[in-house]
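To: structure subgroup
Subject: Chain for Friday's discussion

All,

I'm putting the inputs and outputs inline so they're searchable in the archive.
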Amino acid sequence: MRPNRPVGAILYLLIMVLSITSKAQLSIKNTEFKNLKDAFIHREEAAWLDLSNQGLTELPDSLLQLTKLQYLDLSRNNIKVLPSKIGGLKNLKYLVLSHNELKELPLEVKEWSLLQSLYLDHNPELEIDKTMATLAQLPSLKMLSLAGDNIKVIPRSIAKIKKLETLDFSDNAITNLPDNMPELKHLRVLYINNDAYFNLGQNIQLISKIKRLNELHVENDGLSSIPPSINQLKSIEYLFLVGNKIHELPPEINKMKRLRYVDLTDNPIPPPLHEDYRRPLDPKLFIRLNRKN
């Protein structure tokens, strides 16, 4: 079974798939495989390979010869080390390494000049400092998931991944973002879910400086209130606060002029107050208070 993907990431993948398919006119029959033997037989055409949940502890040599691969899913295996030869898969655009036992990536991944999406989530032994330094060498990386990697401090080297658009730090123990996060000038979507340590109030001013950020997820983080300084997030259009302990919205939320959607599902807002929230707010703003509305 595949790991759950964030909504924004799923949409991004769909767009990428359509793009690859339309440009290369790929035939699903000849290019998409779930069997390494068949993919190797058709190695000149094999562009997509799903080897998730195969009990792999290392990568077979035959896999490293599939140099035309654009999509590779190695999730939910028991892989501890990636061989240096994996750098030879220079056509990779989408790579899933979720739910393995990786500690670091080989330096040769710098050869992945086309890689756009990388899932490294749920590798709890991952050495984040070394990993981030390696990822900084990927010139096309736009989507990165580091969810569930036992991260307590985000290295400042994150800012060197210049083209990042979507970043997922869910399921970690992060208190604060690094002060140079605003250097990610293309970042549009940020996930910090399931992290009881994250202090939204302390990070708002910093987040407000990420100029292109328009979607923020702070879900299941134990927030009891929304700080009045939320009005500093002037670029945010979509705000997800699902599964917290929020009882009310501060009036300052009206000053978030670009805000169009707030999801407050699974928060203890009393039902009689639902309509009172909507009445004074911008009519263009949609507030979701439960799964039915």
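Points worth raising on Friday:
The domain at 1-150 is CATH 3.80.10.10 (Leucine-rich repeat, LRR (right-handed beta-alpha superhelix)).
The chain is about 15% helix and 10% strand.

D.
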